[in-house]
């Protein structure tokens, strides 16, 4: 009998949560008193992680002398099959008392938030601990000072990018609007205009596509800091996945727990956004806030509250921050899903006759506003300059150069399976439910299946006839298409039409 177990990969994706699987008859499991959901420290050749235990029944696939690790645990530990590791109870998380204090209404300083962030990154906190922390901070339970402290703690825990004394422009959309893929267009315009814009973006969390998902259809996005700097120094901009750069890395852990809780927290949203902007080295940041009844920000009152907190925290973080309130009533562009959104982006950059006008105009508005933020510019001239850069083809050329520098451009693919959803009666298209149309696109396979999603065939204000196609479902397999179609047919108010017209 030894005090070690042989490690094997479980082949199970648990996202960023390290999980260890042990047989209930394992001698270490018994002697240490490990039970399901226990926190277990695993030591291997000077490296260690803390994982959550899942217990496997006797006579199953896992031997009593083995321990299986989830994909994230395997990678974090740097394990190789056959390695033997030691298992023990970890020291209690230092931040447990901090979380308890916040749960009982206490105010936290930066040291308290830093302790929570540090223990989160070391996986010393269970999902229950994190859920308690997120709940204690939800709603309006983080004041302005606490939001600043949390933002700084999240930024300081990860890597930061330093661009010297140069002006660094950046933009962010708070989300909730399907198809609103302005970032690649804005980056191309701003970089072509001679400014620095190293854009780090996220993959989809609850949406059918994030900017990184859409960009990945056209070029590699998983760049490290060295490669990112090389691209930006050569082309003035980039569009890469921020998850590979460890910028505010605790945010991914918080989001993983926030998502099923479905809590709205102004403080946590602000800390999430601005910690990453500050870590990326931005000096001037534009925040786009789409407002609409089915967007993330549902009213002007909510937009004003969020904007006020963003502005105050941005100032405390040393950022020159501007706000842009936009229409969030309906999806933007025609495509919803990575490849379909990429096609829209390319159509705008290529000045194609059928390019979605709403996406083009939004991108020009944002690019113009961002150009106006740059020092030495004349206020109000940015929009005209942005349009000139786009119309001349300079933005298209810059986008292709950025793609080449990131590893090479490729044209988006198309889905093999398609079906149209028709209007049940004649009328005028009055509204689109952003959340439900996004859910249909996800059920079709987006964003994991890059060509899956929805192609909108009508817009608000259009008059349609009975039986006229409203939108087209795209999927890569018949099963995914049928799954999405079943939900779409059960939702009669995804797209609202007026009463029949003559």
TrEMBL record:
It comes from the Bacteria. GO terms for biological process: pyrimidine nucleobase metabolic process; pyrimidine nucleoside metabolic process. Residues 428-495 form the Pyrimidine nucleoside phosphorylase C-terminal domain. Keywords: Glycosyltransferase, Transferase. Pfam families: Glycos_trans_3N, Glycos_transf_3, PYNP_C. InterPro entries: Glycosyl_Trfase_fam3 (IPR000312), Glycosyl_Trfase_fam3_N_dom (IPR017459), Glycosyl_Trfase_fam3_N_dom_sf (IPR036320), Nuc_phospho_transferase (IPR035902), PYNP-like_C_sf (IPR036566), PYNP_C (IPR013102), Pyrmidine_PPase_CS (IPR017872), Thym_Pase_Put (IPR028579). It catalyses: thymidine + phosphate = 2-deoxy-alpha-D-ribose 1-phosphate + thymine. GO terms for cellular component: cytosol. GO terms for molecular function: 1,4-alpha-oligoglucan phosphorylase activity; thymidine phosphorylase activity. Its EC number is 2.4.2.4. It is an enzyme of class 2 (transferase). HAMAP family: Thymid_phosp_2. Belongs to the thymidine/pyrimidine-nucleoside phosphorylase family. Type 2 subfamily. This is Putative thymidine phosphorylase. It comes from Aliiroseovarius sediminilitoris.
